[in-house]
Amino acid sequence: MLRKTIELRKANPNLKILIAVGGWNQGSVRFSDMARHGANKGRFISSAVAMVKKFQLDGIDMDWECNSLLWPTNILQMHGHIGKLP
Question: Catalytic one among 22, 63, 65, 77?
């Protein structure tokens, strides 16, 4: 399905394609566990960026229903990791 969606760019070069991760049905446990540990966070970010590059996507919609007590620290740390990637 992703490849077929990417093919739509031939007809519409301005089409923006994002990959969505998470959502209400996923809950917060998986993302909270990932964000809690530096190595897991680094793997997630590296694989997400690699996917964006491989498929020439325009970004990622990360719908993390996170614990409000963890949110500021973990989101800011993730942004810091993304900024360090090549």
Answer: 65
Residues 35-63: what's their mean pLDDT? 85
**65 noted as active-site residue:** yes
Cβ-based burial of 45 (10 A; exposed 0-12, middle 13-18, buried ≥19): buried
Question: Pick from 74, 70, 56, 50: which is nearest to 13 by CA?
Answer: 56
Do 74 and 36 touch, CB atoms closer than 8 A?
A: yes
Torsion region of 76: left, alpha or beta (phi above 0 gives left; psi -120 to 50 gives alpha)? alpha
Write out the H or E segment, with its range, that includes residue 22.
strand 18-22
Please report which residue ranges of 1-86 form alpha helices under DSSP H: 2-7, 29-36, 38-54, 71-84
The pLDDT of residue 74 is above 60: no
- Categorize the per-residue pLDDT at 84 as very low, low, confident or very high, splitting at 50, 70 and 90: low
